[in-house]
Amino acid sequence: MQTLDLTNLRATRIPDLSALRQLQKLTFRQNWLTSFSHIEGGCPHLTELDLYENKIAKLSDCTFPPDLVTLDLSFNELKHMDGVAHLTRLRELYFVANRIKRIEGLEGLNKLRLLELGSNNLRSIDAAQLAHCPALEELWLGRNKIEKIEGLEQLPKLRKLSVQSNRLTEIGGALAQCTDLRELYLSHNGLTGAPVGLSTLTRLTTLDLAGNRLTTLVGAGLESLTSLEELWLNDNQIGTWEDVEPVLRALADNLQTVYLEHNPVQKLQSPEEYVQRVRQCVPKLLQLDANIF
Length: 293
Known about the structure:
The chain is mostly beta strands. It has a domain at 168-293: Leucine-rich repeat, LRR (right-handed beta-alpha superhelix), CATH 3.80.10.10. The protein has helices at residues 127-130, 245-250, 271-281; strands at residues 3-5, 25-27, 36-37, 48-50, 62-63, 70-72, 92-94, 114-116, 138-140, 160-162, 183-185, 192-193, 206-208, 213-214, 230-232, 257-259, 287-288, 291-292. The longest helix has 11 residues, at 271-281. It starts with a strand and ends with a strand.
């Protein structure tokens, strides 16, 4: 047996797995565990451990298999991240929906590719901690209390970044060196004016700026994002075609999906004329809002 799924058993302890010598993936979701103890010598090939939605409050109460590649501790009761630094082979680490207030405990995780910290209580992005993860490709920080993008300078391989549903009021210059970014999600923040600070991200294929208070794209340098395929601008305050049309035309070679609904500019004409105008700007458009062509 290579995979064992023990989801939703209301279990309070891990059964004896020492006989499962070939086990590689253990899923123990939606149980009542308060700790996890790895049986020494048992499951020597275990590399994926899923403890999503249990009742673990302290990582100091846990002993994890040393060769884990993937560890999911989402939807537990953790306040701290320290306790995983010895898992030097980790590639993916998930802490969604805990009570974590700061990024910590990443020393030794220089092979980590994905870090998911959505729905916690983070207020800042710790550069010193992220510097321990130079191989990081995906960083997910949605639904926290972060007010400033910072600390990403030492993540040269970063491809996907989400800071959705935080407290950002500007983008600033912290992304200038993240030139390999492919996907950037900044929706549902407090961004105003023009989204300045993105012009160096020339490899972006997806940019999500929905649900902010942007009034224009002009002057932000977005014309340089010529690899962009998806642009999400819905639910902002863009009021005139002059505020958006020049940028759409500049990005037309690769742009395929645009979300622009719920901006004042949408109401300047009939629905049919609105669709026609955007398609004139972006001839290769495959989707506008919910309309697929």
